[in-house]
Write a structure and sequence with these properties.
This protein has a single domain, classed as Arginase, Chain A (3-Layer(aba) Sandwich), CATH 3.40.800. It has eleven helices and eight strands. The chain has helices at about 1-15, 65-75, 90-95, 100-110, 115-120, 125-150, 175-185, 200-205, 245-260, 290-305, 320-340; strands at about 45, 80-85, 150-155, 190-195, 215-220, 235-240, 265-270, 310. An eight-stranded parallel β-sheet has the order 2-1-3-8-7-4-5-6, with helices on both faces. Strand 4 (about 190-195), helix 8 and strand 5 (about 215-220) form a beta-alpha-beta unit. Helix 2 (about 65-75) packs across helix 11 (about 320-340). Bound molecules: zinc ion.
Length: about 350
């Protein structure tokens, strides 16, 4: 596995200056300039992250609004910290990651029943809008992280989406779109995607398999979706039942090494809460405290290397909407503590 790391580091050095700098900037966010009235950790949120689903659906769509509600209610954040994204454009999706055919079909509802089943969602206009806001949110979180060092969205992490199809509740690969978007505009040259969702980031791994400018690091439960794994630059496959200590040992072994050798100038962090012991799809055994420690440690470690960190919430599954939404706020609570402890 170390060998894999070093190969990508070498290739990256060779092609560091080869990215296309001629693409015109497309306006995709409403707030990209420093606003002196804004205080504290940037939190990217939009009510448009939510679209209508049947209440018994396995994917708890309302978790995005509910976790935001808890962040305000528990005084973790205030409204001055909130950045509102715009919907990502069709053009950006195509120039970065997705095929024109797929985006045209997805936007217009030309997705077959079999294909819809694979994604876990019945197509609707609201679903398209939701995905566009969520991807716009990840783009804005990166923009905010580049300006302020650290930022968190209240959505994002749709890592099973491939260029030409969706899969496993993921329709557009927001992290891949954001990584490519900022590389193509020469805002960053090397991006590390740290994917700690319990499922392998197969779409992301596939998209960047031959891209020396993006390093994909996935820590996941081996005996879990997707059945057929892709090859990330570094995959750590865990056995069922792994708990806090063993989990952190693995991340502690690899993340510092990747940061030191690949030397990214941006990290996108997928803080999926599905490794939690009570997650309905997880198979791992992390506690609330374990997730908090994980998130704090990852963000602090990345920032200690002087690298901006943009965070997305990733997966989490429970029948209990409130329990799940609160679990997703662990990321924002840990980020707030990192922000305060580091005097940002
Ligand atoms: Zn997951």
């Amino acid at each position: 596995m170390v060998h894999t790391v070093l190969i990508k580091v070498h290739r990256t050095l060779l092609s560091k200056h080869s990215v296309n700098s001629k693409l015109k900037c497309v306006r995709l966010v409403s707030q990209v300039t420093k606003d002196k009235t804004r205080r504290g950790l940037p939190i990217v949120h939009h009510e448009g992250y939510v679209s209508h689903l049947p209440p018994d659906h396995r994917f708890k769509m309302r978790k995005f609004e509910r976790l935001f509600y808890y962040l305000l209610k528990d005084n973790v954040i205030d409204r001055k910290q909130v950045w509102k994204p715009e919907r990502v454009s069709r053009k950006v999706l195509i120039e970065t990651v997705h095929t024109q055919e797929y985006i045209d079909d997805f936007f217009s509802g030309q997705i077959g029943v079999k294909e819809q089943k694979k994604t876990g969602f019945e197509w609707s206009r609201g679903l398209v809008s939701r995905c566009r806001y969520e991807t716009g949110g990840t783009l804005l979180a990166v923009e905010a992280a580049l300006q302020y060092g650290l930022a968190c969205s209240t959505g994002g992490g749709t890592h099973h989406a491939f260029p030409s199809h969706g899969s496993g509740f993921c329709l557009i690969n927001d992290m891949a779109v954001a990584a490519r978007y900022f590389i193509l505009r020469n805002r960053v040259s090397k991006v590390l995607i740290v994917d700690l969702d319990v499922h392998q980031g197969d779409g992301t791994a596939f998209i960047f398999a031959d891209d020396p400018n993006v390093f994909t690091f996935s820590v996941h439960c081996g005996k879990n979706f997707p059945l057929h794994k892709q090859k990330s630059d570094l995959d750590v496959s865990l056995e069922n039942g792994v708990g806090d200590d063993e989990y952190m040992e693995e991340i502690g072994k690899w993340l510092p090494l990747i940061l030191e050798t690949f030397r990214p100038d941006l990290v996108i962090y997928d803080a999926g809460v599905d490794p939690h012991q009570k997650d309905a799809l997880g198979n791992l055994n992390l506690t609330d405290a374990g997730l908090f420690h994980r998130d704090y440690w990852v963000m602090d470690r990345v920032l200690s290397h002087g690298v901006p960190c943009a965070c997305v919430i990733g997966g989490g599954y429970s029948k209990d909407l409130d329990e799940l939404s609160l679990r997703h706020t662990i990321l924002h609570r840990a980020a707030t503590k990192v922000w305060t402890d580091r005097g940002m």
